[in-house]
Amino acid sequence: MEQKITKIEIITRPSKLDELKDALNDIGVLGMTVSQVYGCGLQKGHKEMFRGKEFDINLVPKIKVETVVCEVPVELVIETAQKVLKTGRFGDGKIFVYELNDAVRIRTGHRGVDAIKDIPGEKPDK
User: Fold this and answer.
1) Looking at the whole model, is its pTM more than 0.90?
2) Computed from CA positions of residues 96, 23, 117, 64, in that sequence, does the dihedral angle turn out positive or negative?
3) H helix intervals, 54-103
4) Alpha carbons within 13 A on the beta-carbon side of 51
5) Which SS3 state, helix, strand or coil, does residue 19 take?
């Protein structure tokens, strides 16, 4: 049976990035992409004062962590992220899970799971 390739996207508070990254590394998730993003959900933003005027800040700063897994169980990634990120307050974030059809490692042309896995003994150029 061919292994599935799954993309997991986690959107959460910027202050939780280091803790999340360490926890994911501990379970074997090594590759990830991190982006600074802005969004609104149930929080609906907040009000701030600037030069005596009140402003609605509708978009809240967040981080988006994206990773693709094929060997690490998806449920383990989700459970780990929830354990690290859950405060019980609005703004803890969301986790989205996508099944991918294919992946291509541009440098080697490897496809599918082979494009995701590390190549034993190979080290990146410095």
Assistant:
1) no
2) positive
3) 74-85
4) 0
5) helix
Q: How far is CA 95 from CA 20, 82, 105, 111, 115, in A?
A: 13, 9, 25, 26, 23
Q: Which stretch of DSSP H or E encloses residue 58?
A: none
Q: What is the mean pLDDT of each run of 10 residues along the chain (126 residues)?
A: 88 97 95 93 68 78 96 96 95 95 94 85 69
What number of other Cβ atoms are within 10 A of residue 65's Cβ? 22
Nearest alpha-carbon partner for 29 in 71, 85, 82, 84: 71
- Torsion angle of alpha carbons 77, 81, 83, 85, nearest 10°? 180
pLDDT score at 59: 81
Q: What residues contact residue 73 under an 8 Å CB cut-off, 6+ apart?
A: none
